[in-house]
Amino acid sequence: MANPMRIRAAVKDGITEVRVLMNHEMETGQRRDAAGALVPAWFITEVTATLNGRKVMQTQWGPSIAKNPYFAFKVKGGAAGEKVSVTWVDNKGDTRTDEATIAG
Amino acid sequence: MDIHQTRRRRVLQTGGGFGLMAALSAAGFVVPKAALAEWNKAAFEGKTVADAMKALGATSPAASGEVQIIASDIAENGAVVPIQVVSRLAGTQQIAVFVEKNPNVLAAVFDVGPDLAPDFTTRVKMAESSNIVVLVKSAGGFATATKEIKVTLGGCGG
Q1: For chain A, what is the domain count?
Q2: Is residue A1 assigned to a domain?
Q3: Which residue of A has its CA nearest to B43?
Q4: A51 Cβ partners below 8 Å, 6+ apart?
Q5: Residues of B with CB under 8 A from a CB of A
Q6: Closest approach of chain A CAs to the CA of B18, in angstroms?
Q7: Nearest Cβ partner of B103 from A30, A56, A72?
Q8: pLDDT digits (tens, 9 = 90+) for B6-35
Q9: Would you say the C-alpha torsion A46, A25, A65, A83 has a positive or negative sign?
Q10: ipTM of this model?
Q11: How do residues B31-60 score in pLDDT, each as one tens digit?
Q12: Domain that holds residue A69
């Protein structure tokens, strides 16, 4: 199981800004190791988010996203104390979901 | 009394069986297929911006001042290049980010649902100095913006 994400969510003027820091190698499949063998691609392909259990965000990624990805997005609505949950899925089928509470 | 109870049990068993079948078919067949189909393989494997755009269905995108790329002109480290993309076009549906000189040009596709503001920040890898191209699908068709970022240290092991 992958390492946890760090999620910060704060609401301001009716817009909730969610900032996520994920733990992932994000191998492009272009790099070679010391022995010259190609390191297989291993990257997050899909990220989704829910606000109080309702899906609000969906995105697809390629290998060009940097290692240990940072991702920030803005959701309309939301209130302090509500729950934001973020899920990623990688090309090996591994997945991780973490949750945060919106700060006022 | 006994007969009634047995019947009730039989009905429950049958019902349970149907429920399980429905759950299996939903979990095992319908849902994952739909989820997998969402990742646009053709677009992400595109080697040029034109190919990847075509795979996303973009036809004759025009440059637009309403699409903004916020990033510094020079990236010290190509492995971590922060960029923010913002669209002010009405009815923005999708924002795609391309790094022109990367082996796979498409970095990300953000779906802008009704609950989202068209404003995303992330960090991309850049193999070398290159144009960042952003494609926005909105109610008025496709629009693009381009920004050149100079990389002083490459993103692939440097």
Answers
A1: 1
A2: no
A3: A62
A4: A16, A75, A77, A78, A82, A83, A84, B115
A5: 35, 38-40, 44, 79-82, 84, 99, 102-111, 113-117, 119-126, 155-157
A6: 27
A7: A30
A8: 555 555 454 444 444 444 444 444 334 344
A9: positive
A10: 0.90
A11: 343 444 468 888 998 889 999 999 999 877
A12: 6-101
